[in-house]
Amino acid sequence: MEITRLSTKGQIILPKSIRTKYAWEPGVKFEVEEAAGGVLLRPLKRFPRKTLDKVVGSLKYTGKAKTIEEMDAAIGEEVKKRHARGRY
Length: 88
What we know:
By secondary structure, the protein is α+β, with helices and mostly antiparallel strands.
């Protein structure tokens, strides 16, 4: 068992061994729930699970459908641009 303390800002540092075990990086959001004798921290899922019918049409496109080759070419061009900017 490890011990931590509450800061004057109301923050608690989770021990590194716990963060590593669960692969929690800075910015992970937690649900806080009162429990018998304390609190329960539960990490929120990054993206709620959705079904296809809930997201179909969320990105509108009115032009002619692109071919796989056109999509591959566009992806390749963007990768080249990002490399040129030092992004990857």
